[in-house]
Amino acid sequence: MSDATLEELADRAYVTEVVQRSKTSFLSGMRVLPKPRRLAMYAIYAFCREVDDVADEPGPLPAKLVALAEWREEIARLFAGRPTRATTRALQRPIADYKLPEGEFLAVIDGMEMDARGPVVAPSLADLRLYCRRVAGAVGQLSIRAFGASGAEAERLAVALGEALQLTNILRDQAEDALDGRLYLPAEYLNEAGIIQREPLTVMADPRIGQVRAAVGRLAFERFAESRACIARIPHRTIKPAILMQEAYWRILGRLERRGWGKVEPRVSLSKGQKLWVALRYGLL
Fold first, then answer.
1. What are the CA-CA distances from residue 69 to residues 54, 80, 109, 117, 131 (Å)?
2. What pLDDT shows up at residue 16?
């Protein structure tokens, strides 16, 4: 790291500031990594944050699609060795060192476009899982390489854990999403429960919502079980942040289940003490 140019140092400072400004719980999990891998993760996070902001911030759809198209062009420039943004410049060394795939960066952009074209309301189960693969599984594929893991088992972990985390987020954030006009619960599950309405706030108030949320919860638990099986077959020193995220989000999902799937509010989270216990329990500090 000592051979970094002034521009490289400035770019690293920029992506670090993006992570710190976000106040994300992601930050604590990355602190267990050696500095080069930690900086790689900061660059990956900054990319995801900036693309996500395009999809989430107010603005007309045509402008958002133009901005996302510009990001696709920037990824092409990055892999051609000609990045023009601080975030993509900060990704140059991680891409070279950890073989981060171009297709996974593009998949993240595709997932954000699904949100930008939204709001997403009652997608098919297939579309929901595609969305999870793009916005979470793709990030997992980039992250697992930055952590230091490789091979088919690590890639399976990235996809399974990514879907488990995203489904948990959907269940945890349903009330907040409904206020934004979003409803990520799959149409098949809503139909099975006899819920024909699609207006998010109306669906959230339906007494049968617990049946739908329970079905999503079962799918999330299945994906957690798959990711846990993958973790058992991978050297733990290479996936410490993944273990931390697995255990923290698995506990959030468990709390949602114990509270009752019919209760959508208040938002469930872990306290700082609980997060610290998870880190100590799994030897991550």
1. 11, 17, 9, 13, 18
2. 92
